[in-house]
Amino acid sequence: MASAATLSVSPSTHLFFKSLRSPKSSRFLRAPSSKASTTPLEISNVSAVDKPSNASKTGNWQWKFQNNSVNIYYEEHKEETSNPSKSILMIPTISDVSTVEEWRSVAKDIVQGDGKVDWRATIVDWPGLGFSDRPKIDYDADVMESFLVEFINAPDSPLRRSGNGGREMFISYTSYSDSTPWLPHSLLGGMPYSELVVFGGGHAATIALRAAKKGLLRASAIAAVAPTWAGPLPIVFGRDSNMEARYGVLRGTLRAPALGWMMYNVLVSNEKSIQSQYKSHVYADPENVTPGIVESRYALTKRKGARYVPAAFLTGRLDPVGSREEFLELFAAVEGKIPILVVSTSGAPKRSKAEMDALNGAKGVAKFVEVLGALLPQEEYPSAVASELYKFLEEYFPNSS
Question: What SUPFAM superfamilies does the database record attribute to this sequence (predicted)?
Fold first, then answer.
């Protein structure tokens, strides 16, 4: 299985599964400010965390789910132009410290490209993560897939704006089946069609592919950057009925009012743990893990409701598939329908690397490349990742028509 997180199995986790007792005490730390600045980004092979967003637009989109109105944070990156632009949706890797920040440098690099196509990039935070609201929802892979599909297809989605001289462009689709190609409504007399490319990291890429297999996500191309599919604890302890029961106990403990925060602080929300995780398997080069990265990620773990998604992710509830065979089938299912780029990494953890390597030459994978990095290459080595993504875009979208 693939390891795919900034959550690691710490000694505290092992103790939990031995005793299933809560910690006797836990120190609550004061979180630093998590407000985004507005100073310009620079492109380099280091994390974008210390380089706040200079996005063309930032905003919140309202996601309606189970009687909740959830503020979803997004950023829009584009160059000023009067020409029609094509859209890219960038989705952060799912983890306890998932954030739009990981894609910022890549987004800026691509929209500033000098090719024949003008690109507009939208980066969106998952519900329960990043700068989005974090309601107490029973998060699982279906919930995350539903959010992604609705964000793309909703009439009021930020993706509906094309950048075509300020004119709004909307997409609507005909019905789809495995045997019949889908067509944009524009070909049937509707509004103009704007193509959408999806870039996703880790679990995000796999969730997007799962939605695409079902015909719920319409994309003209997908790039899976360091794709993964399995949460941390099932990798180490397995998925038999006994362990699943223990995962349920841990998940319930993390979601509990006071006790949940105590356990969350022990397992996840402390600077030492975050630094250790980044140095051991999130980044390939420990020297790239700066104090600014740790401080920023720690601040995310202190936001209201921060423990709910990690409780699901740590215990495998956000896993889009249950085996490598199912993982490969997601790619095979879109063979001939959607070109897929897989960006593997040379320094990924052993299990994650095995899952990525299994995609090399696999059915449905149009192109397979390898870059430096571990589980967050788009953040640690943004220039290298942007270069491969831009080559892919130029190959499949050679002109603006």
Answer: alpha/beta-Hydrolases
- For residue 17, pLDDT over 80 is answered with no
Using CA atoms, how far apart are residues 224 and 226, in angstroms rounded to an integer? 6
pLDDT in tens, 250-279: 999 999 999 999 999 998 999 999 999 999
Residue pointed to by tokens 């449905």: 364
Dihedral angle sign, alpha carbons of residues 178, 392, 130, 160 = negative
In three state form, how does the secondary structure of 170-232 look?
CCCECCCECCECCCEHHHHCCCCCCCEEEEEECHHHHHHHHHHHCCCCCCCEEEEECCCCCCH
Per-residue three-class SS string for 92-123: CCCCCCCCHHHHHHHHHHHHCCCCCCCEEEEE
Asked whether the CA dihedral 130, 133, 137, 140 is positive or negative, the reply is negative
Sheet holding 57-65, edge to edge: 57-65, 68-77, 119-124, 86-91, 196-201, 221-225, 340-345, 367-371
Q: Give residue-wise pLDDT tens across range 70-127.
A: 999 999 999 887 777 899 999 999 999 999 999 999 999 999 998 889 999 999 999 9
**Distance of alpha carbon 267 from alpha carbon 261, whole angstroms:** 10
Could you tell me the two tokens for 233?
Answer: 């604890």
Structure confidence by residue, pLDDT tens digits, 230-241: 988 877 787 888
Residue 10 contacts residue 99 (beta carbons within 8 Å): no
Q: Which token pair is 338?
A: 């959607």
Where helices occur in 316-360 by DSSP H, the ranges are 324-332, 350-357
Structure tokens at 267: 């397992």
Is the pTM higher than 0.85? The answer reads: no
- Type of residue at 37: S
Task: Kindly list the distances between the CA atom of residue 377 and the CA atoms of 93, 368, 372, in Å, as whole numbers in the listed order.
Answer: 11, 15, 7
Alpha-carbon distance of 131 to 72, in angstroms, equals: 8
Q: Strand pairing of 161-164 and 367-371?
A: unpaired
Sign of the alpha-carbon dihedral angle for 30, 34, 38, 39: positive
